[in-house]
Amino acid sequence: MAAKDLVRKPIAATIRLTVPAGGARPAPPVGPALGQYRLNLMAFCKDFNARTQKYKPDAPMAVTITAYKDNTFEFVVKSPAVSWYLKNAAGIESGSSRPGHAVASTITLKHVYEIAKVKKEDPGNKHVPIESICKSIIGTA
Considering the domain boundaries, does residue 6 fall inside one? Predict the structure, then answer.
């Protein structure tokens, strides 16, 4: 490995967006956010849409883009939020208006386990036991 491979590139910005799965287009909100750092919009859109093909269309994907000063970028895609999965599993539009008092809907432990399996693939949860992720999801519900 050459010494230049170990040198860090100077970072221009870190951009956080929520983009629907398979729905990245050079229009707002993606276009202006990446355009101000002169990043290649079409490269990002093609890459993002390819990486999010396995998810349900319109699932809100959290993406963190690291823009470098030489106009290159890297990005990390996280799966949709637990609350989105819970609402889909329960078949409701929004949660309870009075959490802890009124029950909006119920889901089974199988649903919780399935959500935990998807969340386990996230970069931050690779080494977290699935049991702990399940407990966190139950806490969110």
Answer: no
Segment 7-31, tens digit of pLDDT: 677 877 788 888 888 777 777 777 8
Residue 122 sits at φ, ψ, to 5 deg, of: -60, 150
First to last CA, the chain: 48
Low-confidence ranges of the chain (pLDDT < 50): none
Q: Are residues 21 and 73 in the same domain?
A: yes
Q: How far apart are CA 35 and CA 48, in angstroms?
A: 16
Q: Is this prediction's pTM over 0.70?
A: no
Flag whether 5 is in a domain.
Answer: no
Q: Which segments of the chain does DSSP mark as H helices, in order?
A: 30-35, 41-51, 82-90, 109-120, 130-140
